[in-house]
Amino acid sequence: ASELGLDDEVLVAEYGPDVLVPDDISTRDDSGAVAQGTAQGTAAGTPYDRAEQTARLEAASRKLAQLGRVNPLALEEFSALGQRHAFLTEQLADLT
């Protein structure tokens, strides 16, 4: 707790066994906070069930493994190739 700067009381309040587990990742907004499920303002979710959450974790781990290795520089490489393509297209247009 001291190494990561986490407070036990805060963790239990936010992720304790009495807190509902979101049904789906779509119940979270862009900031990662749980969205409100109904017009009355109650949070959407189900009570914590260890077996269910373990199965959910295993399914997510399998999906992650299926993705394989991800190139963290792919966006930069794509941008560079886009610039190169635009340059060569312009050169080709000049030649024709």
Identify the notable features of this structure and list them briefly.
0% strand; 3 helices; mainly alpha; 96 residues
Can you put this structure into words, describing what you see?
- By secondary structure, the protein is mainly α.
- The chain contains three helices and no strands.
- The longest helix has 22 residues, at about 75-95.
- The radius of gyration is 23 Å and the shape is elongated.
Summarize the structure in short:
This protein is an all-alpha fold. Helices cover 50% and strands 0% of the residues. The N and C termini lie far apart (67 Å).
Low-pLDDT residue intervals, each spanning 5 or more residues: 34-41
Shape: elongated
Give the C-alpha Rg.
Answer: 23 Å
Mean pLDDT: 82
Q: How do the strands and helices of this protein lay out in sequence?
A:
Layout: H1 8-15, H2 50-67, H3 74-95
